[in-house]
Amino acid sequence: MATEKKEIKSLKSDETVYVAFQNRSPRNVTLYWHDYSGKLVRYAVIKSGGIYSIDTFVTHPWSVSDSKTGDRLFVDNQFVFFPKVQPQEGDEPRYDRFFIELPVYPLLIRCLQVIRKKIPKNEMDRLHIPDNLKHALKYVPDLKCSTYERFSIIDHDQS
C-alpha cells in the first residue's frame, strides 16, 4: 500500500501566535513561510545570533535554510516548524523563542554536500571515488529547501 505524502502548506489564519526565531547557528539563514498553495515565501534573512519576531498562525509552517548554500536547518529540532499556541499573560503579546540550529547530518549526506560544494558537476565523473558515491552524487538529492520540488520560492517583499 503506497503512503500518500501530505503537502506542507498553510491552512487557516484564525489562531494567532507570536514567534521569535533565534538563529543559534554560525550561518546567516533565510526564513521561509509555506503559503496556502505550498509555495515557499522568502520572509527574512536572520544573521548568526540574530532574532526575527513575527505574528503568525498555528497552521502556518515555516522552514529555514542556509542563505549561502541552501542547506536546510532545524527550527525547534525539526526541518518544518509548526507554531503552537502558547499561554499569554496580560494584554501585550509574548513572543516565544524558537531556536534555529544546524542539524547533525548523516555522514554520507554531509560528504555529498561538501563534494557538491567543492567540485563542479561536470567534473564529478572524473573523481577517483567508489562508484556508489558517484551514483549518490548524481541521484541523492541535497537536503535543501529546494528539495521540496513542488514548491516554488517567491519573495515576500515583492508579493
Write the layout of secondary structure elements.
Blueprint: E1 16-23, E2 29-34, E3 40-46, E4 51-57, E5 62-66, E6 72-75, E7 96-101, H1 107-118, H2 131-139, E8 153-155
Parallel strand pairs: 1-7, 3-8
Antiparallel strand pairs: 1-4, 2-3, 2-5, 5-6, 6-7
What is the SS-derived class? Answer: alpha+beta
Termini, distance in Å? 40 Å
Give the H and E element order.
EEEEEEEHHE
Low-confidence stretches: 145-159
Taking the sheet with the most strands, its summary is: 8 strands, mixed
**Proportion of residues in helical segments:** 10-25%
Summed over residues and divided by their number, the pLDDT gives a mean of 83
CATH architecture classification of the largest domain: Sandwich
H/I helix tally: 2
The strand count comes to 8
Q: Within the CATH hierarchy, at the fold level, what is the topology of the largest domain? A: Immunoglobulin-like
What would you call the shape? elongated
User: Strand order within the widest sheet?
Assistant: 4-1-7-6-5-2-3-8
Number of domains: 2
Share in β-strands:
25-35%
CATH class of the largest domain: Mainly Beta
